[in-house]
C-alpha cells in the first residue's frame, strides 16, 4: 500500500460543488500516485435511491478522471469485494476492515471505514484482474474469425 485517502464533502454543499470537490480530490490522488488502472465500486440498486444516486455520481466522476488519462477502469460489486477479502459476500464493514488490516499487515484498521473499503476494492481488483483478463482474452479469441489454412504440396 502506497497510501489511502478519502475525499469528504459537506452534505450541505450544492451537488455541483460536491462533484467538483470529488473531482479535484481524485485528480490530486491520480497526480500523486500515477496508477496504471482505476477500480470503482459498481453501483447497484439499494433500498435507498438517494444513496444510490450519490454513489453513482461520485463513481462517474472517478471514471471520468480515469478516462481523461486513458486509464482502464474496472468495476467490482460490493459483494465481489467482500467475498474477495473476507470469503463472504455479505460481510459486515468491521469484518472487511479487519481482513484489510490483516492482509496488508497494518497495525490498526484504516480510518475512516471508507478507507478500508477503498483498500478492499484495490485488493479485490489485484486478485481478480488476472483471471478477468484471461477470461476476456478467451472470449475475444472465441469470437475472432477463423480463417482456414491449408498447406498444398506437390
UniProtKB/TrEMBL annotation:
Which residues participate in Mg(2+) 2 binding?
A: 41
The keyword Endoplasmic reticulum is annotated on this UniProt entry: no
The active site consists of 41, 114
Q: Where is the signal peptide?
A: none
Which UniProt keywords are given for this protein, alphabetically ordered? Cytoplasm, DNA damage, DNA recombination, DNA repair, DNA-binding, Endonuclease, Hydrolase, Magnesium, Metal-binding, Nuclease
Where does the protein end up? Cytoplasm
Cofactor annotation remark: Binds 2 Mg(2+) ion per subunit.
The enzyme's first-digit EC class, named in words, is hydrolase
Subunit-structure text: Homodimer which binds Holliday junction (HJ) DNA. The HJ becomes 2-fold symmetrical on binding to RuvC with unstacked arms; it has a different conformation from HJ DNA in complex with RuvA. In the full resolvosome a probable DNA-RuvA(4)-RuvB(12)-RuvC(2) complex forms which resolves the HJ.
What is the recorded name of this protein?
A: Crossover junction endodeoxyribonuclease RuvC
What organism is this sequence from?
Answer: Streptomyces chryseus
Q: From which lineage does this chain's organism come?
A: Bacteria, Bacillati, Actinomycetota, Actinomycetes, Kitasatosporales
